[in-house]
Specification:
alpha+beta, 433 residues, single chain, eight-stranded mixed sheet
């Protein structure tokens, strides 16, 4: 079941990442297009227009390739990291393009450090990659932005014309560079990147946990009533996990009598419809009495009471459920008769005793079930219904646990031998209404 949960979680995380990468592709397309168009109209030189246009065109040509990969849900990490690398290169190239376009070495390199678009563009990319699915995206984009600041600051610091000052006003309006202002800018980017990285990690873990709980609830709904599901999910992160264990349970087997003969003259779709109608009614009764659906067995089923958590009243609930099944069949048959369908007959067997309860199988295919002699005896009692001409039998182990009011609804048939089992079992049958 861990494998099932993991695969389901990964599918939803992949869906989220594909959607986020598409948003990032749209964002990249928009900012590159705006940069290219604005450069064409307000660029300072043909060199700036050519370089910016070439870089922008190359990036835009990536977009349909990335969209094709996303549509096929392939190479998501490649799309994400190549896009990230593209953004970092673009972010680092722009200040130098702008610097060369206004005169290059004739202009103080402090121009690159103080260009108004640099930090805004860097923060935009950090935020965009913070939405792109993987925890590393905003972290790496932040490192790329810090690298860009370090490169332009280092380039400016090496120029002998550069003057450093602690005056923020002079940094903005004059030729000097404020180291403190630079540190505050880098600190802002790092704080934004750290927050978005933490949030991406938190969202990913929360989504995995939510999906895991959803899958657990889906799996539990196959076996347990809604009330039991809620209790199990409150008690443990993996209510069906762990090794199988030994505990006392009541096993309840049902089987439709003569159903094979009925099926021979009906279409498979009609047979499936009959079974669905029968099973729906009987499973609802099992769930109403706090039982667990173990499995369907052709035209019958196995249900248990007292698993996965013993509650002390499993025999009473199992007996009441069996009696309710017995009472429900005439109602179902009345509905079938009105539709011109053949009537159904069932046998029900119950036994109380120790069994192995839990997940069995291999990691790729686990099944929650019960094993042991208790289950075998219940199955044999159900088969004995046909031989004795009864529709509900239970063992003395079940009968002895019932309160007098319930015991009065059964009569003793004495010791009975069960096929394939040494020794006899005290058997009780439900009294006719």
């Amino acid at each position: 079941m861990d494998v099932v949960r993991f695969k389901r979680s990964e599918e939803i995380l992949i869906d989220r990442e594909v959607a986020a990468l598409r948003v990032m592709l749209l964002l990249r397309f928009v900012y590159v297009s705006i940069t290219m168009v604005s450069t064409i109209f307000i660029g300072k030189s043909l060199w700036e227009k050519f370089v910016t246009g070439s870089i922008s065109t190359a990036i835009l040509l990536e977009t349909p390739i990335f969209l094709w990969l996303l549509a096929r849900r392939r190479s998501l990490a490649t799309v994400g990291y190549l896009g990230l690398f593209t953004d970092i290169l673009f972010l680092n190239a722009l200040p130098f393009v702008w610097y060369q376009s206004v005169g290059g070495e004739a202009v103080l390199p402090a121009y690159m450090v103080k260009h108004p678009n640099t930090m805004v563009f860097a923060l935009l990319l950090i935020i965009g990659h913070g939405l792109a699915g993987r925890t590393l995206y905003p972290a790496l984009m932040t490192l790329g932005a810090v690298l860009q600041y370090a490169i332009v600051f280092g380039y400016a610091a090496l120029d002998p014309r550069t003057v450093f000052s602690s005056d923020f006003v002079s940094h903005i309006t004059g030729p000097t560079i404020s180291l403190e202002f630079m540190i505050s800018c880098v600190g802002t980017m790092c704080a934004a990147g750290a927050l978005l990285t933490w949030n991406a990690n938190r969202v990913s873990r929360s989504l995995r946990r939510a999906v895991s709980q959803e899958v657990q609830a889906m799996l539990l709904s196959r076996y347990f009533s809604p009330g039991v599901q809620d209790e199990l999910l409150r008690q443990a992160e993996d209510p069906l996990g762990g090794n199988a264990r030994r505990q006392n349970i009541v096993a309840l087997f049902t089987d439709l009598r003569g159903f094979t003969a009925l099926s021979e003259s009906a279409a498979p779709e009609e047979v499936a419809s009959w079974l669905r109608e029968y099973h729906q009614r009987m499973v609802a009764i099992v769930f109403q009495h706090g039982g667990v659906l173990d499995k369907f067995l052709g035209d019958g089923m196995l249900a248990t009471f007292g698993a996965p958590r013993p509650q002390g009243d499993e025999t009473r609930r199992a007996a009441r459920a069996a009696l309710a099944m017995r009472d429900a069949l005439p109602e179902l048959n009345a509905s079938r008769a009105a539709r011109g369908l053949p009537l159904l007959r069932q046998g029900v067997g119950l036994h109380f005793g120790p069994a192995i309860v839990g997940n069995v199988g291999v990691p790729e295919r686990l099944e929650y079930t019960v094993l042991g002699d208790t289950v075998n005896v219940a199955s044999r009692l159900q088969s004995l219904c046909k031989d004795l001409g009864r529709d509900l039998l239970l063992s003395g182990e079940v009968f002895s646990e019932l309160e007098p009011a319930l015991q009065s609804r059964f009569e003793m048939l004495g010791a009975q031998n069960l096929r394939g089992r040494d020794g006899s079992v005290i058997v009780y049958a439900a009294r006719d209404p």
